[in-house]
Amino acid sequence: MAATRVYAARVAGLAVFGPDGESIGKVRDVVAGLSTAHQPPRVLGIVMEMAARRRIFVPMLRVVRFEPNAVTLATGSVNTRQFHQRPNEVLVLGQLLDAKVTVAASGASAVLVDAALEQTRTRDWRISRLAVRERTGRLARRGPVQVLEWDQITGLAAAELTDRPQGVEQLLALLDTMRAVDVASTLHELPAKRRYEVAEALDDERLADVVEELPEDDQKDLIGHLGEDRAADVLEAMSPDDAADLLAELPEVDKNRLLELMEPAESAPVKRLLEYSSDTAGGLMTPEPVVVGPDATIAEALAMVRNPELPVALSSMVFVCRPPSATPTGRYLGCVHIQRLLREPPSTLVAGALDTSLASLPPTAALAEVTRYFAAYNLVCGPVLDDEEHLIGAVTVDDVLDHLLPENWRESGLPDRDDRPGAHSPDAPKASDDA
């Protein structure tokens, strides 16, 4: 049986199914229209994330039912243009959660922790009730959660949400269940004020992972907002190639200042990458591939590629070099593909499983040459050597794709959609729900 009341925080991340039962996306937020009168706001629709991280608006009239583990859409069409929030709208998860409110009856200060979406007799959906937690005493201790009617709460006017500082505890709890790439997509859709609040609350490692997935303009905006010391800490936690790409887009004075603030051991590989053009193998590579000496065993090499923090593409190949193992390494001897590692006895030396015939890339190789190299050898990772046969880094296929795709690919940048109530355009491109 379809639910007629659901809580917004429990909707986040639910799978969305078309009328034929096929999975077409996930719920990322709920859109409501704030009214000037103190009345429960109307729920306009959901923000659904489709393939390739595109977020679209799905009107509530297309939602057939909410179930504990899924949302089902009706037969019909929805506009597949990229979601963009409008001034009279609020993102329930992104903006309402953690809002500081006042309980009208007692005047007590409270924090909004959830919102109930309820279907009325006219089949409209409204935010009927709010779950809030009062803060009591001088130390603002957390009180019990209570559920109140919308008109029993004050402090949720659009202007108040825009101007007032807001907590992030509930929103962070939701984001903590998401991959960095999905968190980045969520932050991109939030107003700048809310984006800054979330970024300030994330630890350096998590924020670094998220910044790596943001569009370039958002990256520069956040780094500029954080302040020099915090920005340097985040850059240190980023992959050197991503940090170099970001620094290369900043004004020269800002780039140099941040490099000065970074720890020398962290800034050194970034500086080396900045010596190369971004569209060459040297500019594309990461200076932290998996490197072992010739006397390492297969078991030791496999232990290194099992590191869960290692990107998938980098874990596909182990490079064997004379000491030192940090780039630039000693003389490059060859590589071992992960398939070969899995086929060999664990006690065997990697030197006995070397692929010495695979061609390498010079750091000056242009993007077109790098692309042909990956296509010709069917690779996801390839070595970059200097003129003296030292390994200085490795290029991965994801870095190549980043530069082959349009600059705004992370935004899935399509124009605004026009399928919300009162804004329908018959000329807007449509796609069926089961597209």
From TrEMBL:
Cellular component GO terms, alphabetical: membrane
InterPro entries: CBS_dom (IPR000644), CBS_dom_sf (IPR046342), Mg_transptr_MgtE_intracell_dom (IPR006668), MgtE_N_sf (IPR038076), MgtE_transporter (IPR006669), PRC_barrel-like_sf (IPR011033), SH3_actinomycetes (IPR058838)
Biased composition (Basic and acidic residues): 410-422
Pfam families reported for this sequence: CBS (PF00571), MgtE_N (PF03448), SH3_actinomycetes (PF26205)
GO molecular function, one term: magnesium ion transmembrane transporter activity
Keyword Membrane: no
Superkingdom: Bacteria
Keyword DNA damage: no
Protein name: Mg/Co/Ni transporter MgtE
Organism per entry: Saccharopolyspora gloriosae
